[in-house]
Structures are given as structure tokens and as C-alpha cells.
Amino acid sequence: MMELNPKDTSIQRCLSMHHVSQKHPAESVHYSLQEMALGHLMVRIPETNTDAIKAIKSVIGLDLPTQPLSSVENNHFVINWIAPDEFLILTADKTEHALEAKLREEMSGHFAIVDVSGGQTVLSLSGERAEKILKKSSTYDVHISNFPIGKVVTTVFAKSQLVMRRTGADSFQLVVRRSFSDYIWQWIVDAGSRA
Amino acid sequence: MSQPNRIQGNNASAQSRVDVSKPITFSFNNKPYTGYAGDTIASALLANDVDVVGRSFKYGRPRGIVAAGAEEPNAILQLGKTEATQVPNIRATQQLIYEGLECHSTNGWPSTERDVMGVVGKLFGRFMPPGFYYKTFMAPSKLWMTYEKMIRKGAGLGRSPKAVDPDTYETINQHADVLVVGGGPAGITAALNAARTGARVILADEQNEFGGNLLSQTDLLDGAPAQDWIDNSIDELATADNVTLLINATVNGYHDHNFLTIHERCTDQSFDLAPEGEIRQRMHRVRAKQVILATGAHERPLVFGNNDIPGCMLASAVSTYINRYNVVPGKKLLLMTSNDNAYNTAFDWHNSGRLVRAIIDTRPAAGKTVVKKATDAGIEIIYSSAIVQAQGNTCISNAMVAPLDETGEKLSGSVKQYDCDTIATSSGWNPAVHLSCHTGGRPTWREDIQGFVPDNFNKNMIATGAGNGLYPLTEILQDAASAGAFAANACGFNATKTSYAKAAVEDVAPSMPIFHIPHFKPTSRAPKQFVDFQLDVTAAGIELAVQEGFESIEHVKRYTALGFGTDQGKLSNINGMAIAAKKLGKTIPETGTTVFRPNYTPVTFGAISGRNVNEFFDIERYSALHTWHVENGAEFEDVGQWKRPWYFPKGEESMHEAVNRECLATRNGVGIIDASTLGKIDIQGPDAREFLNRVYTNAWSKLPVGRCRYGLMCGEDGMVFDDGVTSCISDNHFIMTTTSGGAAHVFNWLEIWHQTEWPELEVYFNSVTDQWATLSISGPKARLLLGELTDIDLNPDTFKFMDLREGVVAGVPARVFRISFTGEQSYEINVQANYALAVWEKLFEHGAKYDITPYGTETMHVLRAEKGFIIVGQDTDGSMTPYDLDMGWAVSPAKEFSFLGKRSLAREDTVKENRKQLVGLKTTDAKTVAPEGSQIVLDPNQKIPMTMVGHVTSSYYSAVLERSIAMAVIKGGLDKMGDKVYMPQADGTTIEAEICSPVFYDPKGERQNVK
Amino acid sequence: MFLIYCPYCEEERAEEEFHASGEAHIVRPTDPESLSDEAWGDYVFFRKNPRGNHHELWQHTTGCRKFFYMTRDTATYEIKEIYKVGEQPKVATAPAVPNKYDQFSSEQAVKK
User: Fold this and answer.
1) For chain B, domain boundaries
2) Which residues on chain A are in Cβ contact (under 8 Å) with C63?
3) Which residues of C touch B908 (CB under 8 A)?
4) Is-contact B295 B311, C-beta < 8 A?
5) A110 touches chain B (CB under 8 A)
6) CB count, 10 Å around CB of B794?
7) Which CATH fold topology does A18-192 show?
8) Minimal Cα distance from C35: which residue of B?
């Protein structure tokens, strides 16, 4: 597996929202919308491969979340439950290759790891209008009684879909695929422009 | 005098909701009128003594306002100041007036006052029974279109705007424990009891304020005017965190599993066009655990002769206009009723200072409470009688009253005339059951209230109040409180007691079941007795339908059009059913039940589209290089949801000029295309090869690391549905590519087989379509260009065709695949998408000296067609096997596992002779490009219908060959090389072509191996 | 717009998150080459279409992307049960009702 980030850091990098966030700036007192530069690894482990599951703990310091729709995090990593055998690990920007290497070293049996740091991005959405924006976009019940801090769901969003996680009373992280980024960003800015 | 019917001075209603300090000017049929803030168009027109608001649909008879709410059938108006803001079919009773509002009657030609159809209706009305269009205009059928034009001019309800809707609409999703539909006494009580437990409650009402029927009647609650209780209750609900109040919000559709749609009119009541930045309407899509229907009931009118003359109104509507809007619709009232409740209308009229001519009660006796009130007010009551006929033209002049026998079916004496200008009637009430039917509920008939109530097939729905057939206010309040508590508890909350307001208990006499007043002439000869005002359906028409053999109420409805209007028969359904039942000799429940579909009231399309318009109409997917394409003048094509560059015109180039230039540049120098949109699936696991063997037609067990192979994918029916190149990254790691449009389908295909059929195979699939950008360079200069930018050894003898290498390109880590869709020497450079633009721009910087030319999908199509490469979905249509495509080389029958589709390749139908096969075509006239889709025949002189043997799938002009090329599927084509075929065109000409190999250019494939 | 329980996510979601994929428990023949065209055709082309309880295959497409089974009444739309791939249904399908159209069964159609 290859390190995909160039050694020469002067080479221009355009994250998914680079162009659309300039064309349609999210300037509002009611919410804030920002792209976060992170490393993304999709990790697949069958529920029966207990060794690999333990290996996650030894590398990342977190137990793999087995409760559906839950997430765990520490200062360096977030692990999101996506499906019984599918997990999205978020790590600091440009550390995904080193993390994958360590995981492959420790894990055995059947598993898969795919670096998708270039194929999707994380949007941080927060503010008094954040929850309302989600209500305009998704049929998922985002009230804190159903969507508490730390819960992560993959669901319909506008005409597309995304992964969303509540990080605070008024804050969320959205994981958006690169090719849908322009659509999703513009949609959010439009939804947030009205009460 | 302005507003002659507005009640003045001491007689003014104490509970009027109209604000006389805020006069408003509006226009109706181009005439200006004045009303006040809080008026609807209907109340303001009545205040101004306007009688005629429209002409009826079929007979063109003058019509006036009948009701005060959603059930209004006649006052259907066209609203809007500009072309773009035209709204057809608004009910004058539900639209508030605002300064400058413009509205018109919707029919009446040349005008409402002087309507031609009205004259026709008067003269020929008796010749226009139901079905008359069909009966009269059956023959000669040629003349129907002529008749239709004439009829169309005289009929119709409103028109659509011809300009784009300028307003903004929005959708929002809501979740609640309890949704309460209707904000009258029942709804408010239920909402209070549910909300006090902490449950999440939504309370919605279609009117511009809460209160429902309390706004129309003069009841006291807890000993005080009802408005006090309404205000206090709404205050409590408005300040509760767990409650959402929605006003001007009609719950229009009740869908599966307690999913309901509510249409909130945010600015319609105040503006023609919503102010800048505001939305006009909002659709709430609500999922509720429990739904409480507190929808109230609609009063029924009684059916009698000429009951459609302007001035004939529902009793409760008259009370509403007096109490809520401070308007008395006329000077002299004659009230006809079958129940105690309507007596209140006479009292309200009397208290306004105007004359009540008499109360005509169809029963022999009435309740003590109302009789005493009438006596105290000096109002005459005439028992066991009915109004049999109204007289007048554009307003009522008098009414004919006759005694009724105790069955109510026969007149028992002679007729007397009473002068009056307003006739208010009441036949009782119909619970508004509409929403309960939307998902298949069939209302139940209750003999005791002579009405249908919601059935209880939906365990998470509760009906309460008048909407469930409860009419005394005390019963409504108590039942609604229990409903609210019960619903909250069903959601896991803990209501231990209920609370509700106190209302007076009244001594009420039973009502009489009567719907249709007999006339001294037989129904068919009496003056028209209207059942459905909006569609001009009469009692005679219904009886005629039954006579003609329509016994099912559904057939009667369709034959007569009963209930088919925009009011969905709110006032007419029960009366119509009663008349049909009587004629059939059955009871109402035996005759059937009418059901309803969404929406309860008409909904503008904008509210349904929400924000999914213009730039949000559909998703546009972009590659990482999209902005560069836009900045460099690309024209785009839709490929699935992707926007792909189609061609890059320079200056004033036409598409053909651009494509020719791009093709030549690629074959002679170096072309570059953004191929990022192709689906890419990462496959990992020890059973990856086995899985590939099962889903592809060819063999994968021995594909070495660092090699690529083209694969065909078939369904179990043996037909090709996708193709692509799959590469071996390491022994247990492959990357599969798919067509751009097929990526999601292929991904699900792999998943469905793995999850449901072969879960024992250890393999995982993940989409990496967006992770990798693919920059593909092609042409004799491609290797030179790449060589300047990479550390990979490009020696063509070692980095062979269909190899892949990992390395660095333009400073960025990359995988380079030596695969070609153009037939030229090509390199597909894959980099992590965030660095695509940096690498692309470096390629252009170094490629300038090679005249590097960006090209799009059109050129790509031409170049691959020159090489005879198929495009799945263009040259295939789901009915082509690999053998039909002459791609038997891609099928490995020796594979151990019977791969998906393999058995079907041996079916009798797939091995038979004369199947359509893929071939090339060369037109005889080299410059002629046969249109794609052209049908192919063998004999151009055959008479029509000609035997079609195939069609053209791909067709282009080839700049490099300086002639047209095409691919086609032709029956038995592979055995017909050299034969001439013909393609007749729609303009009468025929194109001649010769069947040939589809590999038009570089048949030996030498160009991809240039040294 | 149904509410459907996903047995993997363990909560109910709106119908738009799912995709129905036809009749459940269609098992691929282990030796396709040994089947006659008719028998293979039955497997590829013929599906049940009962009025009443039906076992259906569904996918949580915009959620966990897993497949699962649903026993649903095709006449009333009531969802009777949901179970994972690998599990068996507890509710039986609607019994086959003999009717006058039985003469057009697949066997006889092919024989013609």
C-alpha cells in the first residue's frame, strides 16, 4: 500500500469543498460550516475475527464500537460504526498511511483497510440553526432525544446521502463523498440562509 | 354605502376577529371593495352585499357563498396580481384579504354577470342530465372536437399561470410523539393533555388562528367567553419547549405508518408575492408515533328546489359570519333545520339586529332550551314543515314552505310563500373523516348521528371530538383530554389525570334523519335540487343514474361526477349517498361508503418541489477537475448524475469541428481526458479471485500482480450489463472499474451475491470512485510527456500494455495503468483526488510543446468506435450476450465455477440462429453519417411494414479516416460481412451501407505499442 | 412512506433509505449445467406474486448497505416480521390458491 500524500508539501492540495466554499461562502451568524482536513480509513472486520478487533485497541487505544450507530473517540482518533463489519476511522490529516501500516502489522485473519481520505471529507456544522438545517435535509429524527452526542448514522440527505454524527448540543460532523460535495455544500448554505 | 352588511354599534359581535381599525382595499372582478384585517375574501364580499361570486360549472347558474371554510363549493376564485403569481381554485372562505389583493370568478363567459352558458343552462338545462355529453355528442364522432372547443369556453375552474413561479418554497422534516390534527376545542384540549406529560407535540390547524368552531359559536368555557380559554391555552402551548404550533397549516395527506404531510401557507395570507428572502409555503413531512384526529365536522345542507340561488347558505356558516366576522349576509332570514343546533343561527341573526322571518323545523318538536330562546326572542317556529323551493335569480326573493309528514318523505299540505333574502339550512353534521381514509380506512356508519366516523384499523390513530361524531361540547372536551393523555402514554409518557374546560350541558332533542326535501312535483320534474354545487349534480341526476343501472355508489359518483370537484364532495357526499340509497331501496351503509385520497385541499406544485428546483433540481456530481473544465470552456454532458466534459470548443468551433480537432490531435500527438467518473471498487480478501471468477465471464485465478484484464459482467440471463478493467494490486487486492453510470448497480450486484448467496467467501468491497482521480493521456507523444514527469521506467518492453506500476508523477504518488480505450498508446494516471488538479496542470505545462489537447466524451466515443470497442448501454441494451457482441474471447467456459450467466448462454433462445449480432457499417456515401437508432432492412423496396433486422447503435464521422463509421446490431450479422443493408429515414430517403468489421482503424492494434 | 426496522442498525428508518429487491430465499442451483432450460428458466425468470404474506429481500441502501428479509402482506402492506440473512422466517407465506388461470403455468407454457 502506498503513501498517497506527496513528500513535497508545496504541491497544491484541493480538498473536496475547496472550490464550492469559495464560490458559495458560508457566512452567517446563525451557523458555521467548515471543512476539516482529516485522514479517513474504511476498515472492514468480520464480527468473528476477534484478534483483529483486539488489534484495533492496541493500535488506536480505543475499543471498536460494537453497539450499532455508536462512535468512540480520543484525542487522535474517532471510530464510527457504519455496519456490523464496517468502521470509519478518522485520524489527523496526512497520518492515514502510517495508521494503515500499523494496523496491517497488528491485524491478522480476514479484514480490509481502504484509504479514502481523498474520496470523502468531513464538514463541521454548528450553531443555533444547525439542527434546523438537518431537519430541512433529512428524514432522520435529529432531536437530541433520538440523536444524542456520539451517535452516528448514515442516512438520506437532500437527494443524496451522508454520514452524520452529533458532537455537541448544537454541533455535528457530516461525512460527504467528494463528487457530491458541491451539491451538499450549496444545499446547506441555501437551507441555512432562512430561519 | 360601503359594507352594508357589516354589523354596527351595539349589535356588533363581541367575539369578532376582524380589526375595524385596519381597513383593507382589494378587488374582485376588477371592482374595488373595502374590508378589514382578519376578513376572508368571502366575509368581505358578504359585508359588501355581493351576491354572485361565480357561475356553475355545467349549467352556468349564478352562485353565491354557501359555507365559511374548506367545504365551500362555489366561491372558487382565481387569485393573483401578475401572470407569475396566478393561483387557480382558491376558496374565498380560506383566503384572507390583504392590501391590493386581486381576485376573479373563474367561469362565466363573457362575464360572470352575463354568462352565455347560463342562458343555455336555463333554456336547455333539462336536456343536459348526467352523461349528456356522452349521449348527445356520441355521433358523429368527428364533430366532438368542435363541440369540445365550445364547451371548454363556457366551462372550467381557473387557469394555470404561464410564467415561472417566482416564489421560494421549503420542506422540513418533523418528528413528534403526538401530532394533533385540528386546533379547535378538541385539538387544543388533546394537545394540552399530551404536552403536559413532556411528550413532543405538534398541533396544526388550517385556519389563520386556533379555535375552530369556538370562533363561530357563542359558547362559554369555564364561564367565560371561549376566546379567553383559547388565548390561555395557546399561550401555554406556545411557550412549551416540547410543542410546535402550526397555523395556516393544512394536514393534507395521511400516509403509511403515521407519515403525514402538512402544507403551511407562510405568506399567502398577507402577500401576492412573498417578500425578499421569505418563503411562500413550507411543507412539513411529519412522522408521528401517535396521531390524534380532531378534524371537526362539516354541516350538511338540505337539498330542495333551487337551493343554489345566491343566499342559500349553511346555518353554521351564517353563524360564523355573524360571530367571527361581524357580517350578516342578508336582511331577512328563513332557517330550515332538522336539529336543535341550527337554532343558534336564528338567535345570532336576531342578536345582530336583523329580522328572522321564521324557523322551519322538519321535526314535530324541538328541544326545550332552544324553544325557550326562540320564544323569548319572538321568533316564529313552524314544525313538521320544510322549504320545498327557493325563488329568485341572482338573489332570493322568497321561499315556498309546505308541511311534511312524519317520515319526511311526503308533503302533507299546501304550499305557503315566505319572503326572505337568506335561507340557512342544516341537515346535520358529517365528521371530517377524510384523513382516516388515505391509507385504506373505510369509515363506519353510525345510525345515531346519521354520519360516518373513522374506523380504527390504524392502531396508532385516535379520532376525537366532532371528527369522531361527538357533538355536545362537554363530551368533546372530556373525550379529547383522554385522547391526549392516552396518546402520550402510548409513547411511553405517564399521564395520570386529565384536565379540560367546563361547558354548559344542554337539553337537546333528537335530530331527524332527512337529507332531501320532497317537492310537490316528482324529482325529475321539480326545479333543480342541487346536491353537488361545484359540479352541478342534482337529486334528479342521481336518481337517473340509479335508474340507468348504476347501483354501486362508486359508479354513481363517476357517472354523475358527484364529489369530483376541488371540494371532494365535502357537502355533497352524504346527501348524494342518501338519495342513491333511497332510490335503491337500501340503507346508506348498505349502499357503500365513500373514501378519500390525498390531498384534503389542493396543493400548489411549488410546495411539493420545495427547494429541489433550478440548481437543486437534481444532483450534479463533479470530478476533482471540474472547475478546470469549466474555466477552459468545456461543454458538458450528463452521464448518470455526473457532469462530464463533452467537448472543448475553441473560439467559435461547432461541436463537429471541435471533435474532429480533438480526435486528430490525440491520434497524432497527445490527448488527455478526465476519466475520474468511472466506477472503481476496491476488492480485498483471500477469496477475491474466486469471487471475480464467479461474477465475470473470464478467468482471474492466474492474473499476476501488476497486471490488468478487461472483464465482461453478465446477469443470470446471460446478457451483458457492465464491463471494465480490473487490476491486480497484490495477491488478495484488486481494483475493479465499471462504467460511470453503472458503478452503484455493480457495487450492489457484488454485495447481493456476497451477502445472500456466498457469505462464506472472505472478500470485502469498498467504493473508491471518489478516492482516485484518473487522468488519461493517449497518443504517440503520450509516453514522451509522461516520461518527463515520472520516475517510473516507461520502457514499453518492460512496462507492457495492460501492466500497472506504482510511482510518482509530477511529484505526487500515483498508480499508472497502461490501458487504452482509444487504440493509441495510453497511460491512465491515478492519483489521490485532492492532488488531481496539481498533476493535471503539470501535464499541461509540460504537454504544451506536444500540443496536448483536452478531449471529452464525444471524442472518446469516436476514438473507441474506430477501434470497435463497445460501450455498455449504447451498443448493448440488456439483450446481448458476449457471443452476440462477437466477444467470445472474453468468455472462459473452462472455469470450474459456473459463473453468473454461464448457464443462460446455452439456453435454446441464446444459441439459436439469427440473433442480433454486433457488426460495423460503412455507408456507401462516405460523408453520410447514419443517425443512431436507424432501423436496418435488407430490401429497400419492400412494402410497409418492412422487416427490420436491426438498428444502428453508434455512429460518428471519423476525422482520421475521413469517412463515417458506425456500429450496429443485425440479425445474423456476423455471417453477412460484405452484404449491403439499407436504413430508411423519416424524411423518405434511404441510406445504404455495407456490413464490415467494427475495427475500422489499426486493425492489428499496432498503435498502442509504439516504441 | 413506510417505517422499516433495520435489523443491523437496530432502529426504524424511513422507507426512502431502503430498496426492495424482489422475492427472498431464491437459492442459486449448485449445478446449473445439469438443469434443463425449463428448470433454469424457472430460477432466472419466475417469481411468486402472492396476495398476502410474502417474503421479500430488502437492502438498507443509504444506511448500513446490508441486505435483510421482510415478511410483508402485499394486500395490506403490513410488515409482519424482519429477519437477517441467514435466519428463517417465522410467518408463513400466503398459501397458493388454486384458480382458473392455473392452466397457464410455466411448465405448460414452455411445453407449447
Assistant:
1) 9-127, 169-297+431-490, 299-428+509-591, 619-665, 674-863
2) 153-155
3) 37
4) no
5) yes
6) 18
7) Gyrase A; domain 2 (3.30.1360)
8) B903
pTM more than 0.90: yes
- Which of B614, B619, B642 should one mutate to test binding to chain A, selecting the residue with the greatest count of A CBs within 10 A? B619
**How far apart are alpha carbons B506 and B251 in whole angstroms?**
32
Contact C9 A156 (CB under 8 A): no
List CB contacts (< 8 A) between A154 and chain C: 62-64
Fold of B169-297+431-490: FAD/NAD(P)-binding domain (3.50.50)
A2 by Cβ neighbours in 10 Å (0-12 / 13-18 / 19+) ranks as middle
| Closest residue to A13, CB basis, from B618, B764, B835 | B835
pLDDT above 70: residue B151: no
Averaged pLDDT for residues B768-773: 98
- What would the DSSP string read from start to end of B290-322? EEEE---EEEEPPB-BTTTSTTEEEHHHHHHHH
Chain C touched by B748 (CB under 8 Å):
yes
ipTM value: 0.98
B108, pLDDT greater than 70: no
Are the beta carbons of B730 and B683 closer than 8 angstroms? no
Q: Is B287 on the interface with C (CB under 8 A)?
A: yes
- Residues from chain B contacting residue C15 (CB–CB below 8 Å): 256
CATH code of residue C77? 3.30.2270.10
Note the pLDDT tens digit of each residue in B581-628.
999 999 999 998 778 889 998 899 999 999 999 999 999 999 999 999
CATH architecture, range B299-428+509-591: 3-Layer(bba) Sandwich (3.50)
User: Is A156 in the B-facing interface, judged by CB distances under 8 Å?
Assistant: no
Q: Answer whether residue B112 shows pLDDT above 80.
A: no
CA distance C105 to chain B (A): 20
Dmax (CA) of chain A: 52
Computed over every residue of chain C, the mean pLDDT equals 88
Nearest to B755 among C41, C44, C67 (CB): C67
Whether residues C65 and A68 touch (CB distance < 8 A) is answered with: no
Following DSSP, what letter does each residue of C1-57 receive, concatenated? --EEEETTTTEEEEGGG-EEEEES--PPPS-GGGS-HHHHHHHHH-----SSEEEEE
Whether A37 and chain B come into contact, CB under 8 Å, resolves to: no
Decide if C82 is inside a domain. Answer: yes
Q: Residue B774 gets which letter from DSSP?
A: E
